[in-house]
């Protein structure tokens, strides 16, 4: 009897990008450089560095982006939010990114420090990501990416209003959307198809999160409205003390989800690394990417 396992072979080689957060200590900075170098070997189109709520990581984000770019040779995108800062202050951060060699911004509104209170714009600040995108065009000729929400942003008036907002951000000058993470391919594909039907032609790159820490993933998912299916939770919810096993399972599941998306024409994936190299490397390899070193 012959058994056909060709379904396990990778499909087309995808494009990937990796997201990191700025480390707090010299030791974790060194660790991130090593992580960045190991992941750079898989040929990412770019790597991005997040920006803490209310600018709390301002200097670290800029420094991390600059160093990652220098150490890996991979183009780096700096995230930037509008929370708690005037337009002038936000523009100054963008200028500092530019001076640090960063040519790509992930432009975000951000969240209020107290999420229950909701977002309130600084009196002289940008009121939304769309306004920030418009403002950035006057600072420097950045490539600009924005956020998209397959399961609808929690504050949006509805799915259509959220799509209209995505269109405003793209019309303002962004060239790509990166999605919030999700755990069912249907969630992303429905959203992508609705965006295409609404005339949005820019690339929407799915954000992929291999869960390494179950309670953290539950918390993130709760905050952004991402649904974690019960069957997935059952597979990993008692692995709190065994994060390595959890990561192995969820990385394999993430690879299956990416392949399902590839079968529907998705060519790029943005991987939320949480500053860990191993899940990203395993995911790249399962998708057919090779270590170039
Ligand atoms: C890929 C990605 C990266 C991220 N990186 C970071 C990061 O580094 N740091 C960080 O703090 N957060 C980050 N976030 C989280 C993000 O800041 C939050 O999700 C935030 O709540 C919304 O930001 P936004 O840029 O999507 O906002 P916006 O696009 O401005 O939208 C915010 C909400 O307002 C609504 N809205 C906007 N304009 C209008 C309008 N004119 N009329 C009606 N409704 C409107 C939208 O539909 C939406 O519900 C990231 C999210 C993603 C997906």
Describe the structure.
Helices cover 43% and strands 14% of the residues. It is an alpha/beta fold and 293 residues long. It has a single domain (13-286), classed as TIM Barrel. An eight-stranded parallel β-barrel has the order 1-2-3-4-5-6-7-8, surrounded by five helices. Helix 4 packs parallel to helix 5. The radius of gyration is 19 Å and the shape is globular. It binds flavin-adenine dinucleotide. Residues 50-51, 53, 79, 81, 106, 108-111, 128-130, 147, 153, 155-156, 161-162, 165, 169, 178, 180, 207 line the site of flavin-adenine dinucleotide.
Quick recap of the structure?
Helices cover 43% and strands 14% of the residues.
Keywords:
8-stranded parallel β-barrel; alpha/beta; globular; binds flavin-adenine dinucleotide; 293 residues; TIM Barrel
Question: How are the secondary structure elements laid out?
Answer:
Layout: E1 15-20, H1 26-40, E2 46-49, H2 58-72, E3 76-80, H3 87-99, E4 104-107, H4 129-137, E5 143-148, H5 159-171, E6 176-181, H6 185-197, E7 203-208, H7 214-224, H8 230-236, H9 243-262, E8 268-272, H10 278-286
Parallel strand pairs: 1-2, 1-8, 2-3, 3-4, 4-5, 5-6, 6-7, 7-8
Helix pairs in contact: 1-2, 4-5, 9-10
Residues 50-51, 53, 79, 81, 106, 108-111, 128-130, 147, 153, 155-156, 161-162, 165, 169, 178, 180, 207 line the site of flavin-adenine dinucleotide.
């Amino acid at each position: 009897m012959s058994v056909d396992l060709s379904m396990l072979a990778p499909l087309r080689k995808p494009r990937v990008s990796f997201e990191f957060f700025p480390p707090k200590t010299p030791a974790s900075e060194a660790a991130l450089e090593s992580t960045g170098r190991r992941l750079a070997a898989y040929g990412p189109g770019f790597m991005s560095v997040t920006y803490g709520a209310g600018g709390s990581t301002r200097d670290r984000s800029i420094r991390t982006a600059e160093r990652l770019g220098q150490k890996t040779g991979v183009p780096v995108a700096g995230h930037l939010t509008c929370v708690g800062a005037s337009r002038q202050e936000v523009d100054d951060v963008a200028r500092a990114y530019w001076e640090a060699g960063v040519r790509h911004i992930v432009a975000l509104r951000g969240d209020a420090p107290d999420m229950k209170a909701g977002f309130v714009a600084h009196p002289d600040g940008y009121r939304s990501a769309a306004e920030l995108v418009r403002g950035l065009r006057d600072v420097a000729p950045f490539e600009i990416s924005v956020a998209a929400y397959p399961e609808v942003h929690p504050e949006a008036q509805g799915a259509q209003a959220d799509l209209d907002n995505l269109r405003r951000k793209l019309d303002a000058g962004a060239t790509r959307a990166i999605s919030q993470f999700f755990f069912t391919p249907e969630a992303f594909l429905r959203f992508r198809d609705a965006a295409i039907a609404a005339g949005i032609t820019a690339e929407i790159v799915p954000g992929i999160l291999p869960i390494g820490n179950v309670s953290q993933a539950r918390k993130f998912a709760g905050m952004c409205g991402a649904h974690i299916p019960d069957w997935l939770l059952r597979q990993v919810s008692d692995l709190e003390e065994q994060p390595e096993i959890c990561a192995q399972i969820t990385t394999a599941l993430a690879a299956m989800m990416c392949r399902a998306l590839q079968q529907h024409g998705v060519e790029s994936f943005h991987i939320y690394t949480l500053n860990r190299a191993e899940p990203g490397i395993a995911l790249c390899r399962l998708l057919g990417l090779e270590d170039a070193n």
